[in-house]
Write a structure and sequence with these properties.
By secondary structure, this protein is of the alpha+beta class. It has ten helices and eleven strands. It has helices at 6-58, 64-75, 95-105, 148-189, 203-250, 257-281, 294-307, 326-343, 372-378, 397-407; strands spanning 78-80, 113-117, 123-130, 133-140, 290-293, 313-315, 321-324, 349-355, 358-364, 411-416, 422-429. The strands form three sheets. Strands 6-8-9-11-10 form a five-stranded mixed sheet. A hairpin with a 5-residue loop joins strand 10 and strand 11. Helix 1 packs parallel to helix 3, helix 4 runs parallel beside helix 5 and helix 5 packs antiparallel against helix 6. The chain starts with 5 loop residues before the first helix and ends in a 13-residue tail after the last strand.
Length: 442
């Protein structure tokens, strides 16, 4: 199974490179360093053995013990006449010592015996016979560093740990910028503005950020062209519609009044749709921000709707000042109230309250509600659900609301109410403008 995370892949790659490098290094070391070293040590051991054999052969028997003592005291070559105490089941020699034994054994005469001793210390004995008298020569294996296997394993483990550390550092170095870019791409995908992203980091990341900035600029230009087109078409169509309305109103005589009313109603619906297009095309970010009391906006909207025959309930807190764009928030509130009237038309309430330092503006109704699956779809321009409360209309109401929410960096939630109905809750950090807004959630 291929690992998915950057940390796993980086760690495995570095560990693989280290392991392969260690194996190649061990192979080259064994062939180019240890092999000549073993052959040289075998030649030296053979030379010592030949010198001792020649000296013992040439000396008279009564002086041989003096020579043996001199070797032990001056040259650290141990020769004895008694057999060494060799264990019957010695442990196998280390790899390097074994190779030395093989090379040294090839240089011995057939009547000479090579014995390996593992306890109490690693030693190599060679038995020779001089005038039918056995002698035992001891050779130490210290030059071969018999602990090399354990040291090599420790070095390999240490290098693997370094690989894991390197993978962790690489992963941490890439995680933050990639996560940041992932969040930005998600926001662009939802149609939100992200501004210009600072181009920094590795060359590949900079190239990606540059492409992302260019794409964001192109999308913004396309959105501006679309909004301009919508505004132009909507504005140009409103004049002939107004003329048609005036002409129909002036028609008298036997003209069918029911047909006349239906035509006027259709024209009014078209004009309402054009007004929504203009609202959607309008960039509320150009409106200056100021301190506004949301309670005043709620009272004003409720009074206007009440004058048109739509009573709106109020549940307002004592203070609701917040740093916003007032005309944009008023359009937002009217769009939410229009939706509530269109799909519920009963028990509609505007509420404001504070919770944990957040000022909430709420629009509540007792309609059929909206399913969670339809929320994302209905927030797109000109999108309508098939079975939910957005199944009719022009599909711009929630899109306009979403644009205004985005320009204020506020949070919007669509909540199902106990007993039926929908609550649209908008959260602002109040009252200071430099406080961060809560993240938008669904």
């Amino acid at each position: 199974m291929i690992p998915r995370s950057v940390f796993s892949r980086s760690s495995l790659l570095i560990m693989g490179i280290i392991i392969i490098t260690q194996l190649l290094t061990a192979s080259f070391f064994a062939y180019w360093v240890q092999r000549p070293r073993l052959l040289l040590m075998a030649d030296l051991a053979e030379g010592h053995l030949y010198s001792v054999k020649a000296a013992l052969t040439l000396l008279p028997p009564e002086k041989r013990h003096l020579y043996v003592d001199k070797l032990a005291n001056k040259l650290s070559i141990h020769v004895q006449q008694t057999p060494p105490n060799i264990s019957q089941n010695p442990s196998p020699p280390p790899f390097i010592v074994e190779k030395f034994l093989q090379a040294f054994a090839k240089k011995l005469n057939p009547d000479e015996t090579l014995i390996y001793q593992s306890d109490p210390e690693v030693t190599v004995w060679v038995r020779i016979d001089i005038d039918k008298q056995p002698y035992w020569l001891r050779f130490t294996t210290a030059p071969f560093n018999a602990d090399m296997n354990e040291r090599w394993l420790g070095l390999a483990v240490f290098m693997v740990c370094l690989a894991l550390l390197g993978g962790l550092i690489s992963q941490q170095a890439l995680k933050r910028p990639l996560q940041h870019l992932s969040d930005i791409v998600g926001r662009i995908g939802k149609g939100q503005r992200v501004g210009t992203i600072k181009e920094e980091g590795p060359q590949e990341i900079i190239a990606f950020i540059h492409a992302l900035n260019r794409m964001s600029t192109d999308l913004s230009a396309m959105e501006a062209d679309r909004n301009l087109m919508l505004a132009g078409i909507s504005h140009d169509l409103r004049t002939p519609i107004t003329r048609i309305q005036l002409a129909i109103e002036m028609i008298g005589g036997d003209f069918d009044s029911a047909l006349k009313n239906r035509v006027l109603a259709n024209l009014t619906e078209i004009e309402s749709g054009l007004k929504q297009c203009l609202d959607f095309a309008y960039d509320s970010a150009n409106e200056p921000m100021q301190y506004v009391d949301l309670n005043d906006l709620a009272l004003l909207c409720a009074a206007n709707y009440k004058a048109n025959g739509y009573p709106i309930g109020l549940a307002l807190c004592e203070e609701a000042e917040v740093w916003v764009r007032p005309f944009a928030i008023e359009r937002l509130l009217k769009n939410l109230l229009d939706n509530a009237i269109k799909y519920a038309n009963k028990d509609i309430t505007i509420a404001t309250d504070h919770q944990d330092g957040v000022l909430y503006l709420r629009v509540l109704d007792r309609g059929a509600g909206i399913s969670t699956a339809d929320i994302d779809k209905l927030r797109r321009p000109f999108a309508r659900a098939d079975t939910a409360r957005g199944s009719v209309g022009y599909g711009l109401g929630l899109a306009i609301v979403d644009k205004i929410i985005e320009t204020h960096q506020a949070a919007i939630d669509f909540l199902q109410r106990d007993g039926g109905g929908l609550e649209v809750r908008i959260g602002f950090c109040a009252p200071l403008s430099d406080q961060p807004y809560p993240q938008k959630t669904i």
